[in-house]
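re: ur question from earlier - yeah i can do the single chain one, its not a big deal. heres the input i used so u can compare w yours
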Amino acid sequence: EEHDIRVLVSKDKLSVSISGTIKPEQVETLKKYVYQQFQALNLEHEALGMDLRAWLTQAAEKGEMLKSEVVYQGTAPIAPRDGYIDWSRDFFQKGYYADPETGAIDYRRPLAQTTVKTDELLCRIIPPEEGKPGRDVTGKPIPPPKGRLPRINTGKHVRCEDMDYFSTLIGKVRWDGNSLWVDDVLIIEGDVGLKTGNIEHPGALIVNRDILENSEVEVG
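and the output i got, formated as tokens:
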């Protein structure tokens, strides 16, 4: 019996679809045809065991032309969780100190506290968690992608042990998104003022311009 049914496997082999028109009187014939196509495509046992008669009967009752109607699906792999940098505390907190009674904000006192002690743990890299493999429509496993492991370039006065990073002296943490330093000499290129906030640094300080009125500087 003639028909225009097509059975296709997606490029990623995660689904089997049927296109064409199914007439009620063709269900039995098409059941055999589709089953033969499933076998030719080497689909896994679960696909070969599905109730094709029920699926084709339901499709025929709709009376519509099927356009890549998915009849069977594999299992997509579950993506891994990427690794990440776990900071020992919030060195780079945004915002400024607010008086708890009045709510007044002191723009010279940033909340970020970047001063660290010798041998203080700065951060550690948490490795990625593995994803779970999937399975295509032929039953073959699909390996999940590998999770990303972040990298830290170790700058001056930072010691790396395995995936833990420590300060080697008293200073200020500096992080540019790729490299990690601890500065014993803090250099202010411009003025000390509202833009920098008050300065508290346990090491040496170089101010290339001025310390503006009402600004506070405390150094070791």
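The chain has a mean pLDDT of 90. not sure if urs matches, ping me
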